[in-house]
Design a protein that fits this description.
- This protein is an alpha+beta fold.
- It has four helices and nine strands; from the N terminus they run βαββαββαββαββ.
- The C terminus is likely disordered.
Length: 171
Amino acid sequence: MMKHVISALVQNVPGVLSHISGMFAARGYNIDSLAVGETHDPHFSRMTFVVVGNDNVLNQVRLQLAKIITVVKVEDLSTMDYVERDLVLIRVKASPLQRSAVMELVQIFRANVVDVSQTDMMLEISGKESKVEAFIDVMRPFEIIELVRTGRIALARTRQEQESFSDQTSL
């Protein structure tokens, strides 16, 4: 089983997310991560899925996505050189005596402190999943109060040829 990062360019119309997530659910495919956002063109959004499965599962996902009219293009970024990011906000208990230890870890991981109270600190980190997971692990001894993640976003590093949004769906 392999994690596949799939990027789908979709028309920015109501119901697209519901339609696509319903397709995944109806066929028993699990979405490990999902992020959706408008692109530079407000008529289109990019959906980034992380799907765990073998090549057969990936092929079925591609075929099912291709059948949806509002899907313009599908790419398996896992087969390309790509940049990925995951954003996490994490609140940890941190007494005044613990703050210097937390700050040291924040600096090592290039995270940011976004809020501080008498009893806790809210931290922000973005990066590859492995970096984010490692940061979460080192924060566990301070007692994690809350944690929220965006889901993974990703883009291919370079394009060998320029493709327009209207190109046929491919993988």
